[in-house]
Amino acid sequence: MVAVRVTCPAAAEDEVVTLLWERGTLGLEQLAAGENTSVMIAYFPSDAVDGLFGVVRAIPGARAEPANVKPVDWVAQFRAGFRAFDAGGFRILPAWEEGAASPGPRTLVVDPGQAFGTGTHETTRLCLAALERLAASPGLGRVLDVGTGSGLLAIAAIRLGARGCVAVDNDVEAILSAARHARLNRVSTSLLVGDGGRPLQRGRFETVVANLTAALLIQKSLELTGLRSAQGRLVLSGFLEPDVPELRDAYASLGPLEESRDGEWAALVIGPARA
Ligand code: SAH
Predict the structure, then answer these.
(1) HSE-up of 171 (CA within 13 Å, CB side)?
(2) Which three-class secondary structure state does DSSP give residue 146?
(3) Ligand 1 — pocket residues by CB below 6 A?
(4) Taking the model in full, what pTM does it have?
(5) pLDDT tens-digit profile of 203-220?
(6) Residue 38: strand, helix, or coil
(7) CB neighbours of 264 closer than 8 A, spacing ≥ 6?
(8) Is 238 exposed, middle or buried, given 0-12, 13-18 or 19+ CB atoms closer than 10 A?
(9) Strand arrangement, sheet containing 90-94
């Protein structure tokens, strides 16, 4: 990993930050900035800095140069700051804390790493809360978790009494992380690498949970809906409050919708289709 010091006019900061992410930065650290100038350290994989200095300089007033700082291990830093916390009725416990070796029925053990889904995100918590409500009534039945990430929702579903859970992700790393988390939590889930619900039989799941993005949920509305059984429910999240009307439209004909929110994030639970 290499560190690059980037200086630019404050007005160009958004443009520069976007460029750095596009060029594959692993993380940005804002240094004390003057009123007119913004200074940051950007970390890159060693093989990703070719041509970088030139494209930064193409933004008027911006420049980039090698920075003489010790690279930060973001994953290690995140892990070091990670503490146990409550999410709905669950206790999220880092794998290295006492009690993680024999997790109780409302504990989710996480080993924060690369895959999304350590329970810290609002959308994960909204899905957890929705699963808890459905578990209380009418029960979860067979569960499908589309975009499982680290597998937290799948594990929670099993803890909440699901009759089995299938978890899909199109990212192999996520599925490896989900396998690791299933082991840590001592639950058994069926893990698949695949795109959305494509690898799966239709009409089989009483609960389908999908914490993706608004665009994907809209694009896949028929595919996701087709996965649930006649009495099945859909739990959707991964979108912001302003996206809700478009999502409601995409799923309008399917059954009553129930909306919940956490900050600016939203979730929808869609009931069985009306007869
Ligand atoms: N379910 C977890 C993680 C959600 S993040 C939670 O609620 O916290 C979204 C996940 O969806 C990511 O792991 C991403 O790899 C996966 N994903 C994105 N597009 C997908 C697709 N087309 N099919 C399957 N999974 C997808």
Answers:
(1) 14
(2) strand
(3) 115-117, 121, 124, 127, 146-149, 152-153, 168-171, 174, 195-196, 211-212, 216
(4) 0.78
(5) 999 999 999 999 999 999
(6) strand
(7) 122, 240, 241
(8) buried
(9) 85-87, 90-94, 107-110
